[in-house]
């Protein structure tokens, strides 16, 4: 059976969910696609664990139990430092899975890691949005030159195959992208409308549920939604930069604004918008009628309306969340492992 050797870089919520998902789906993938997914290395910020013939399902599940930043405790496979070069020399991965947190100023550590992976001949799957937002063209060029794949399906609407579907629209011209692209802020607004609680309380709930980014200002200041718009702009071949997306922070919303909107028959939503022809783009607080389709999209759901020169397509589904993101990353890994060029980016 063909073996795909995988390393996982970044072992927070998504990293663990991904390791667990691989362990649980290993047999299914083997029987359905005839390929064995073998995790040969895992790294977090403090250490790494390597096993050149691959961790067993049991070992992967045990690895998920180490404390935060505790991969270096996973003896006898652990190291008290992270050295990507050593990792590549030791286990020679085919697929590099980048799950480090997003830094939209430097792109690091994801950017350097992905560059390294591509120059060492590994395909890349990333859930870290920042390197794609900041250096999409450069990364794609390196990948193409080396006939490698760079996949990032989980970065936008992790639980819904939005990016793959948009890529399949080869003859249609996309004119507008509009939607609810951040689960945390949509959840906060839904809680405020349904339970009449204030912003801070709703944010705390979103954090407890693991929806929010490690730094929740990325969600509530619209940076996460703006980053997703930028990624979609790259996918449709009409790239914008993060700075071009005008942002209004949701943190200024008060319970009284929500109550007032309800009385008037409206709902408050936090919408991301990109008019491709005019290059007009923003993430802002919008009052919409209760009958609007986006008003029906609540909790941690995301929704995107794509207007093309042919018509409109509406996507509604799960955004982030550990399990959804893990499956989305795994879908990309499987596509590479089975040699599918369909989604070559
Ligand atoms: N914090 C993000 C959100 C996670 O709330 O949508 C998924 O990208």
- Please indicate the percent range of residues in DSSP E strands (runs of 2 or more): 15-25%
Uncertain runs: none
How many domain modules? 2
Q: What is the level 1 CATH name of the largest domain?
A: Alpha Beta
From the 3D structure, determine the CATH topology of the largest domain: Rossmann fold
Report the radius of gyration as a whole number of Å.
Answer: 20 Å
List ligands, each type once: L-homoserine
Q: Report the count of strand segments.
A: 13
Task: Name the CATH architecture of the largest domain.
Answer: 3-Layer(aba) Sandwich
CATH H-level name of the largest domain... which superfamily?
NAD(P)-binding Rossmann-like Domain
The averaged pLDDT comes out at: 96
Which percent range fits the helix content? Answer: 25-40%
- By DSSP (H or I, 4+ residues per run), the number of helices equals 12
Largest sheet strand order? 4-3-2-1-5-6-7
Structural account:
There is one protein chain. The two termini are 27 Å apart. Helix 1 runs antiparallel to helix 2 (57-63) and helix 5 (129-145) runs parallel beside helix 10 (223-235). This protein folds into two domains: 2-159 and 323-339, NAD(P)-binding Rossmann-like Domain (Rossmann fold), CATH 3.40.50.720; 163-318, Dihydrodipicolinate Reductase, domain 2 (2-Layer Sandwich). It has twelve helices and 13 strands. The chain is α/β, with parallel strands linked by helices and 345 residues long. The protein has helices at residues 13-33, 57-63, 84-91, 110-119, 129-145, 162-168, 183-195, 199-208, 217-220, 223-235, 255-263, 322-337; strands at 2-9, 35-43, 48-50, 78-79, 95-98, 123-126, 150-151, 174-180, 246-247, 266-275, 280-289, 301-308, 312-318. The site of L-homoserine has 11 residues, from helix 7.
């Amino acid at each position: 059976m063909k073996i795909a050797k995988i390393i996982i870089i970044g072992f927070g919520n998504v990293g663990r969910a991904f390791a667990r998902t691989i362990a649980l789906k290993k047999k299914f993938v083997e029987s359905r696609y005839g390929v064995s997914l073998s995790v040969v290395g895992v790294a977090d910020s403090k250490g790494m664990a390597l096993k050149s013939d691959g961790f067993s399902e049991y070992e992967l599940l045990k690895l998920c139990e180490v404390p935060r930043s505790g991969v270096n405790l996973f003896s006898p496979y652990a190291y008290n430092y992270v050295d990507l070069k050593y990792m590549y020399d030791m286990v020679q991965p085919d697929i590099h899975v980048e799950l480090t947190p997003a830094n939209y100023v430097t792109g690091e550590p994801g950017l350097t890691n992905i560059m390294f992976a591509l120059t060492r001949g590994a395909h890349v799957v990333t859930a870290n949005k920042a390197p794609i937002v900041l250096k999409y063209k450069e990364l794609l060029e390196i990948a193409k030159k080396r006939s490698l794949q760079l996949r990032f399906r989980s970065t936008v609407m992790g639980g819904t195959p939005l990016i793959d579907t948009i890529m399949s629209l080869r003859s249609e011209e996309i004119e507008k992208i509009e939607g609810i692209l951040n689960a945390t802020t949509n959840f906060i607004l839904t809680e405020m409308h349904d339970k009449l609680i204030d912003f801070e309380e709703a944010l705390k709930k979103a954090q407890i549920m693991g929806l929010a980014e490690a730094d929740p200002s990325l969600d509530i200041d619209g940076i996460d939604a703006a980053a997703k718009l930028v990624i979609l702009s790259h996918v449709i071949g009409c790239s914008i930069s993060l700075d071009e997306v005008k942002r209004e922070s949701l943190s200024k919303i008060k319970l009284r604004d929500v109550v007032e909107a309800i009385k008037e028959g409206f709902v408050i939503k936090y919408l991301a918008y990109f008019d491709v022809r005019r290059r007009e783009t923003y993430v802002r607080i919008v009052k919409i009628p209760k009958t609007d389709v986006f008003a029906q999209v609540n909790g941690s759901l995301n929704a995107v309306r794509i207007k093309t020169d042919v018509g409109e397509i509406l996507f509604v589904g799960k955004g982030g969340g550990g399990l959804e993101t893990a499956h989305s990353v795994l879908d990309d890994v499987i596509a590479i492992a089975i040699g599918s060029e369909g989604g070559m980016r």
